[in-house]
Design a protein that fits this description.
Length: 285
């Protein structure tokens, strides 16, 4: 699918965030026919395509993370897992077509998040790929060679109407998450959360001036102690978080303790999980 907006962006080559935000504001993102058929135009739907944990046994599991965020008519792929064949296979099971994606956002450089990008772009290169600007030149060159447009990010960046990046947070590994706006607050999605899930949620909240209601994705807490996880749970609740969906590198203990602490607000997740956030930011399934 093409549009004057995409064609214009294609001709303009690599853009900086600020410029892209203006272009997207006027041109908007494209729609997913899948999503229109679901009749969930007023919902935010996060479908976990690739994960260590199994949610739906039709999906294969492997170490890595990828999810698709659908909001209105916009469809964004966040991370690509570690293996392109598995990504595309699971995407097919989820009934998303790679060409449904309007944009790709990569959280950080690790191979279990970037490994499927090459295979994805071979099927659909008509996308903007939002990457931390510190990514190595060889990877930027590869993305360009496959025909996609690179958006190098540092500050929070608008991807489409309700979806922003958190900005790149510096840690041992530079990383950005997604910040998705609902009427009652933000949904923050992280790949590995190397800079810290709390730090990333706080950054999203500060920038959007909206409370964070839900956090999901990889929290990188496999080696955390029970007391460290308890402290984190306390801090997330203080921040206003009521919904959590830890998966990927979050660790079994984190999932168990968060399930106990958040009760109904704990959203079971893993490959094939489909988290629907209504206008009030409440997960329906
Ligand atoms: Zn990871
Ligand atoms: Zn990582």
């Amino acid at each position: 699918m093409t549009s004057p907006g995409l064609a214009r962006r294609a001709r303009s080559g690599v853009g900086r965030c600020a410029a892209l935000a203006v272009i997207l504001f006027t041109a908007g993102c494209f729609g997913s026919e899948n999503h229109k058929e679901l009749g969930e135009k007023d919902s935010i739907v996060v479908t976990i395509i690739y994960d260590n944990y199994e949610f739906d046994d039709r999906f294969k599991t492997a170490c890595g993370f990828a999810c698709v965020v659908t909001s209105g008519t916009d469809t964004v792929l966040f991370d690509t897992g570690g293996d392109g064949d598995l990504l595309l296979s699971n995407m097919s099971v989820s009934e998303f077509d790679p060409t449904d994606m309007d944009a790709v956002v990569i959280s950080h450089i690790h191979a279990d998040h970037t490994g499927g990008l090459d295979a994805f772009l071979r099927v659909n290169s008509d996308v903007d790929v939002f990457i931390p600007k510190t990514f190595p030149d060889w990877l930027k060159g590869r993305i360009r060679t496959l025909g996609a447009r690179i958006i190098e990010t540092e500050e929070p960046c608008k991807v489409c109407e309700k979806v922003w990046t958190t900005g790149v947070l510096n840690g041992r590994i530079d990383e950005q998450g997604l910040s998705v706006k609902t009427s009652s607050g933000l949904i923050v999605i992280t790949g590995c959360a190397h800079p810290g899930i709390l730090h990333m949620a706080q950054a999203a909240q500060r920038y959007a001036a909206l409370p964070v209601k839900a956090v999901l994705g990889g929290f990188h807490l496999g080696g955390a102690s029970a007391s460290e996880i308890a402290d984190l749970i306390h801090s997330l609740k203080e921040l206003g978080v009521t919904r959590v969906a830890p998966c990927h590198c979050s660790g079994d203990q984190t999932r168990r303790l968060m399930s106990e602490a958040f009760g109904e607000g704990y959203l079971p997740s893993g490959a094939g999980a489909r988290l629907v956030f209504a206008a009030q930011g409440r997960a329906q399934e």
